[in-house]
Amino acid sequence: MKRRLAREKAFQTLFQIDSSDISTEEAMQHVLNEEEEDAFLNQLIDGVIEHKEKIDPWIEEHLEHWTFARLARVEKTLLRMAAYEIKFNEDVPTQVAINEAVELAKIFGEDQSGKFINGVLSKMVK
């Protein structure tokens, strides 16, 4: 599985977990259908879940005129994924993590989601 597809599937899985009270395994089954699991996919999902308590406050520190609780689930999930990649995954260049989050925001978010994600993540890496 290519990393872009793995990020998309990880986003969908994490979004389902955040939206519903279902297990990681159940969410992954819904998202993957017949596709095979992937090491990078599992690393993203497990990493975000494992480090969420460190990631969420880090994101909130960089929000202007917003609280973390007010963020839409799409933006919250994408910010968590990118923050995990930036802070905890040394294999992924920072700019790649930001660009991939922005691209996913354009697909799954509102019209301004990509700009919002880019702005917050850019502040986080300064």
UniProtKB/TrEMBL annotation:
<dbReference type="InterPro" id="IPR035926">
    <property type="entry name" value="NusB-like_sf"/>
</dbReference>
<dbReference type="Pfam" id="PF01029">
    <property type="entry name" value="NusB"/>
</dbReference>
<protein>
    <recommendedName>
        <fullName>Transcription antitermination protein NusB</fullName>
    </recommendedName>
</protein>
<feature type="domain" description="NusB/RsmB/TIM44">
    <location>
        <begin position="6"/>
        <end position="126"/>
    </location>
</feature>
<keyword id="KW-0694">RNA-binding</keyword>
<keyword id="KW-0805">Transcription regulation</keyword>
<dbReference type="InterPro" id="IPR006027">
    <property type="entry name" value="NusB_RsmB_TIM44"/>
</dbReference>
<keyword id="KW-0889">Transcription antitermination</keyword>
<comment type="function">
    <text>Involved in transcription antitermination. Required for transcription of ribosomal RNA (rRNA) genes. Binds specifically to the boxA antiterminator sequence of the ribosomal RNA (rrn) operons.</text>
</comment>
<keyword id="KW-0804">Transcription</keyword>
<comment type="similarity">
    <text>Belongs to the NusB family.</text>
</comment>
<dbReference type="InterPro" id="IPR011605">
    <property type="entry name" value="NusB_fam"/>
</dbReference>
